[in-house]
Amino acid sequence: FIESGLLSLSEYAGKESVRFAFRYKSSSTAGATWEVNNVLVESVVDDAPKTVFEEDFANFTAGTQDSPASADLAATLDTYTKVAGWTGSKVYSAGGAIKLGAKTSSLGYIVTPSINLSGNNGEFSVSFDSRAWSGDSTAIKIYVNDVLIKRVDGLSNAVSPYTLTSFGPFKFTGGTATTKIKFEGLQASYARFFIDNIKITQ
Length: 202
Hints:
Blueprint: E1 51-55, E2 87-89, E3 91-93, E4 98-100, E5 109-111, E6 124-132, E7 139-144, E8 147-153, E9 165-172, E10 181-185, E11 193-201
Antiparallel strand pairs: 1-11, 2-5, 3-4, 4-11, 5-10, 6-9, 6-11, 7-8, 7-10
């Protein structure tokens, strides 16, 4: 016997009622006998998480993290985000990232558009880059469909220059076809924070 080696069937992925047949050709003068043995068909399942939503705030070009822009863009987020439907309060451009919140009595938050996270039994993961304003609270809150689901501690609030740190992926459950995820400061005063590169995988 001669081994065939691995044969890719990727062009048939997702198709139903696929059948396999073996055919040999003979001639008018010869009809050799052929044998086929040890036929094995295996499926390959890719369990690696897939990115279902992401935002890098690249269009928020005004200002810098050391000196964010002064205009609150909460009412015009769709002008800057990749996907329409974001909402928020006290959202300021910070040179490719955003700053949320003001110094006193101004709670900052941002909420994603509706995302279909009903697959994978509603399980999904969230990751992002963040840091606190110098001297402010070092924690933020994450809500899923208006339910507080996690407090994230450990944000840096050191003096400038500002450098964002990666957080997550944090695994959550309860995803629906219309999931919204909210990132919010810990409190109304002295809880300013930056966020960038939000990614949701499933």
